[in-house]
UniProtKB/TrEMBL annotation:
Residues 47-426 form the Peptidase A1 domain. Belongs to the peptidase A1 family. InterPro entries: Aspartic_peptidase_A1, PEPTIDASE_A1, Peptidase_aspartic_dom_sf, TAXi_C, TAXi_N, Xylanase_inhibitor_I-like. CDD domains: xylanase_inhibitor_I_like (cd05489). One of its GO terms (cellular component) is extracellular region. Pfam families: TAXi_C, TAXi_N. Keywords: Secreted, Signal. This is Peptidase A1 domain-containing protein. Residues 1-31 form the signal peptide. One of its GO terms (molecular function) is aspartic-type endopeptidase activity. It comes from Clitoria ternatea. The keyword Cell division does not apply.
Length: 440
């Protein structure tokens, strides 16, 4: 496969790189996004991003996380083989652009995870909230471009910065991943480093797959167009709401005054079948301690609602679903409301149920969810299949009052546009007969 170099040091293929950046900067409508497939793990309900790392390039799977300030992966001696890695000196400006850091010393022979005067970071697992201290590394990263042709050239980012980690930090993540891909707001996240290296827009889009059998897609460094299993540009279907910064970070090892790397949006109300719930508006606003508000997170498989919102939501949903001739049956954990599957009419966008609208900063900006996103089908041997309302009770005094989780994002295209500081969403692409897989 042809490799296009985009290194800072620009050791080779400089002309090709110059040509690519020229196209990107002169004709914004022809931005070439980098693409990565996303897969869903049935055991953990988490999502995995596939990319290439090291020299020679090795396919690598990382847990997709919409937060964290940097990417991390295990680099013990036996698994980390690369001819191109190097450490970051402790007193460099690159090292001090991370918060917090430590400086490592090595008492063995030097290795990826062992070096002296090596800038070290605190990688964190967002599922278990475990953390440890490990050296930072710079090595090669590559992703394919989407050029609409049958062979897709890889674009090389030769100075990709990330943190090492240990095998123990992988606990709670899908079995085949070797670390975490940070898609957070930070200047060192995966999308930020791609955009900084290629001088492409600080914007990425995701389409999470609804099943483990079909891959989904991530597009980096482009505000569109986006083509999935369709000939229509899906960026035209996006509706936007401002992204909000939570002023208080939520990492285990913190450095004062670092804002959160997570994505918050201005959810102001929830409507079921068009009727608004009464919600205490103050908990939908992020306060000065970082509490309240609505964030988007792939660390939660299902949307989590603060108790008072959850109660109002369930009560109203059950009320509205009586018009659909649905009668509740025994609930299945972790859900509170389930219905026998045989009572449902199936539609293109899942079982027919009352619509759930997330109302954003303005009354007319709605993110509409149909049965495929609001309901979860549960089949167990010897028990009648049920559809359960796929929202869970998060208890009181939650850091975020609403966490929009993975299931509610599936088969939707969502865009995180840091150029315009806005979040774009489409509603279910199944309405347009489009799935999340991309075509070369
Ligand atoms: C960093 O430390 C090394 C070794 O201690 C030293 O040679 C170098 O000048 C320092 N660089 C800066 C930018 O302080
Ligand atoms: C890593 O491997 C190298 C070469 O095989 C060896 O010299 C070194 O001692 C190992 N380091 C550790 C920390 O195991
Ligand atoms: C993990 O990888 C192994 C070997 O590549 C493969 O056989 C297995 O199906 C994978 N498991 C999952 C859950 O992806
Ligand atoms: C982000 O990182 C790039 C290098 O990767 C650097 O040139 C730029 O100044 C940084 N921006 C900010 C706001 O820190
Ligand atoms: C709304 O929530 C805030 C913060 O939790 C609380 O102080 C206030 O009393 C609540 N208001 C109502 C009407 O429940
Ligand atoms: C639904 O709620 C309305 C008022 O909001 C109430 O009049 C009606 O009786 C409720 N229906 C059911 C089935 O609970
Ligand atoms: C609900 O059941 C009633 C009585 O059986 C029927 O008249 C009505 O059409 C049904 N409504 C729906 C939405 O299926
Ligand atoms: C959220 O939207 C409401 C209604 O438009 C507005 O009053 C409020 O200032 C917004 N909050 C933020 C943090 O932008």
């Amino acid at each position: 496969m042809p490799l296009l170099s985009s290194s800072h040091s620009c050791l080779c293929n400089c002309n090709l790189f110059a040509a690519i950046t020229l196209i990107l900067s002169l004709t914004p409508s022809l931005q070439i996004p980098l693409l990565a497939p996303i897969s869903k793990d049935d055991t953990t309900q988490l999502y995995t991003l596939s990319l290439y790392l090291k020299t020679p390039l090795q396919p690598t799977k990382l847990h997709l996380h919409l937060g964290s300030s940097f990417t991390w992966l295990t680099c013990d001696n036996s698994t980390y083989t690369s001819t191109s890695y190097h450490h970051i000196p402790c007193n460099s400006s690159l090292c001090s652009s991370f918060h917090p850091t430590a400086c490592s010393t090595c008492f063995h022979s030097p290795a990826p995870n062992c070096a002296t005067n090596a800038c070290s970071l605190f990688p964190e697992n967002p599922i278990t909230r475990n953390t440890l201290l490990a050296t930072a590394l710079i090595d090669a990263l590559a992703l394919p471009t989407s050029d609409g042709s049958t062979h897709s050239p890889l674009v090389l980012i030769s100075h990709f910065i990330f943190s090492c980690s240990e095998h123990s930090l992988l606990q709670g993540l899908p079995v085949n991943v070797s670390g975490l891909a940070s898609l957070g707001r930070s200047n060192h996240s995966l999308p930020a480093q791609i955009s900084n290296s290629l001088s492409s827009p600080r914007c990425f889009a995701l389409c999470l797959p609804g099943s483990s059998s079909k891959p989904g897609s991530a597009f980096f460094g482009s505000t569109g167009p986006y083509f999935l299993s369709s000939k229509t540009d899906l960026s035209k279907s996006l509706t936007y709401t401002p992204l909000i910064v939570n002023p208080v970070g939520d990492t285990v090892i913190t450095d004062n005054a670092q804002p959160s790397d997570e994505y918050f949006i201005n959810l102001t109300s929830i409507k079921i079948n068009g009727n608004p719930l009464s919600i205490n508006a103050s908990i939908l606003t992020v306060d000065s301690n970082g509490f309240g508000g609505t964030k988007i997170s792939t660390a939660e498989p299902y949307t989590v609602l603060e108790t008072s919102i959850y109660k109002a939501f369930v009560e109203r949903f059950v009320n509205e679903s009586s018009a659909f001739n649905l009668t509740v049956t025994e609930a299945v954990e972790p859900f509170g409301v389930c219905y026998p599957a045989k009572e449902f009419t199936e539609t293109r966008v899942g079982p027919a149920v009352p619509t759930v609208d997330l109302v954003m900063h303005s009354e007319d900006v709605l993110w509409r969810m149909f049965g495929g996103n609001s309901m979860v089908r549960i089949e167990k041997e010897g028990v009648e299949a049920v559809w359960c309302l796929g929202f869970v009770d998060g208890g009181i005094r939650r850091r975020a009052a609403v966490v929009i989780g993975g299931h509610q994002l599936e088969d939707n295209l969502v865009q995180f546009d840091l150029e315009s500081n806005r979040f774009g969403f489409t509603s279910s692409l199944l309405l347009q007969d489009v799935t999340c897989s991309f075509q070369y």
